[in-house]
Amino acid sequence: xxxxxxxxxxxxxxxxxxxxxxxxxxxxxxxxxxxxxxxxxxxxxxxxxxxxxxxxxxxxxxxxxxxxxxxxxxxxxxxxxxxxxxxxxxxxxxxxxxxxxxxxxxxxxxxxxxxxxxxxxxxxxxxxxxxxxxxxxxxxxxxxxxxxxxxxxxxxxxxxxxxxxxxxxxxxxxxxxxxxxxxxxxxxxxxxxxxxxxxxxxxxxxxxxxxxxxxxxxxxxxxxxxxxxxxxxxxxxxxxxxxxxxxxxxxxxxxxxxxxxxxxxxxxxxxxxxxxxxxxxxxxxxxxxxxxxxxxxxxxxxxxxxxxxxxxxxxxxxxxxxxxxxxxxxxxxxxxxxxxxxxxxxxxxxxxxxxxxxxxxxxxxxxxxxxxxxxxxxxxxxxxxxxxxxxxxxxxxxxxxxxxxxxxxxxxxxxxxxxxxxxxxxxxxxxxxxxxxxxxxxxxxxxxxxxxxxxxxxxxxxxxxxxxxxxxxxxxxxxxxxxxxxxxxxxxxxxxxxxxxxxxxxxxxxxxxxxxxxxxxxxxxxxx
Length: 528
Prior knowledge:
Blueprint: H1 2-22, H2 31-40, H3 42-46, H4 53-56, E1 61-72, E2 84-97, E3 103-119, E4 135-138, E5 142-156, E6 164-179, E7 186-202, E8 205-221, E9 231-238, E10 241-247, E11 255-272, E12 276-292, E13 300-320, E14 323-346, E15 353-380, E16 383-401, E17 406-425, E18 428-447, H5 456-469, E19 473-485, E20 493-505, E21 517-527
Antiparallel strand pairs: 1-2, 1-21, 2-3, 3-5, 4-9, 5-6, 6-7, 7-8, 8-11, 9-10, 11-12, 12-13, 13-14, 14-15, 15-16, 16-17, 17-18, 18-19, 19-20, 20-21
């Protein structure tokens, strides 16, 4: 696995370096020009079909940057903490290269280090909200330290036999998460994904398809640094449903090993004329993830089966030389079944294993999301002068535990808008942006028939998170960026960017049950 990571790192770095060398032929590169490139590259930005990136003709670019982020306030899920901060480094770049006979090559690398403060009810997962209902939870408020490496690439051949393009996408992710108070797991996660693809073009039309396979492994053992003291935990199988245990008792394994495999695919169709680009895409993914508590004699804790659909339509209309409209409509549907097992220990000579007597789907977690957005861009050189847009999104969350029957249903409407103005003064540019929006709860109901309504985890996590999900809120933010071109050579630029976002919760009864939430991101870097 380490060799795979180094191989991908080399490929990602090679793509960025090639782009840096080749981009000397291009106009000055800035963060705003790269934003525009990605906005106009419908295949690259909206599908997992690497072959389709050839049709975007996005040119070359590369960028690298360092960032710092800080959040304050408790208006988020309980397991995510309250006041968090982190830093990171990122680079990406590539394009279509004449010296490689028109081959498209692009790569990226991201590193992040985050400290989560005041997180609760999680002792086994780096990301407790990723859709895994089987995990260990404890009562202690604790910090977490997360570290992540992500790298990957996209590659595509030139057009073959006047019609065909073949491509491939590769992604690798490695994460570590360490809880700072007993019981403290040191969780390791790695994920590998490959996405071969193909496109057939004829005239202004193109049809594409891709296949996706991914393998994901996450494991860690919750242990106590003070061995004389046991720590109570819950073996959670769904919100409000669990078994009690103790870390350090000698009879309970704090190990949780998660092993997931997923496969799927997608289809795409595009039409392109002088004024209009249209892209229709659909993707389906099926994933199975098993959870057990022992490497040598595993006892299955649970299994999830996940079905995900994502359908999108993207449109770019160049109204005239300097003005363009972009539109996107998307429907997303994810359904996760939680499977629980009845097992007995077979201590027959030379067998000694857990035997599954029965297994049943005991829970389901569903997310449905429909969104539409429209953006207007006033072009200026290879960048933009104005960029404004609006977005409307409707989200429905439906969770159910079948026996005893308990449900949670939440439906929300989100409306947001943003405006950016890019002031250009010779080699200098200042970008000013503002955004605002609202979250309006449409409906919400929590019905619980389990035996633990008075427990700490139910009252302070399940009920609190339900209240968070259905809480109304107002949102606003601002962005300020400075860019200096021609720093090292004519096409390079230095940039400094600040983004601030603020969320003010306000329930329908006029009372806020949470503090305001704010997020600050500062980023500095170079573009080529």
